Amino acid sequence: MSQTLHLAGWVQDSIVDGPGLRFTAFFQGCTHHCPGCHNPETWPLEGGTPLSPAMLMELAEKNPLCRGITLSGGEPFLQAGQAMEEFLTLAKSKGYEIACYTGYTWEELMTQGTPAQRRMLEFLDILIDGRFMQEQRTLELAFRGSRNQRILQVQESLAQGHPVEETATRWTGEPPAPNPFLHNW
């Protein structure tokens, strides 16, 4: 029998945790305790709703229009291990794009992370890394709360051995450069 994941909550059809319609899972527990955190109720390491990986996948699949899953928190990497890998394996097998918010930086995960945390990266498409910093708070950047946070292409970062920032406008929110060959009629 698989282990359980502990969730502070979830949103069936989020439009603020990544592009498109997404299922967002808020994992219970965080040790970063960033001043001005959006979800301080997720900080306690105990509590939350225990769900098996299969039960969490069932929740994600309730809306057939959702094609993305976002892991948020709390700190999802605190629950890295067998149950998280089972859930992520299920999600990938069903074709979901998986994004994850973390207070850790890419560099911290690669140099100080546990083997389970580094394995967790292998399932992710997008990583929004870095602690929320109130003095760098912004409402201007897509899918980030502070300017220090990066949106990273995880698979490309793993392949190159260093962080590779996402450039697709669906994630960055930046408008495409004007095309000089198109006219405004």
UniProtKB/TrEMBL annotation:
Cofactor(s) listed: [4Fe-4S] cluster
Pfam families: Fer4_12
Enzyme Commission number(s): 1.97.1.-
Keyword ATP-binding among record annotations: no
CDD domains referenced in this protein's UniProt entry, alphabetically: Radical_SAM (cd01335)
Similarity annotation: Belongs to the organic radical-activating enzymes family.
Name of the protein: Anaerobic ribonucleoside-triphosphate reductase-activating protein
Organism of origin: Candidatus Allofournierella pullistercoris
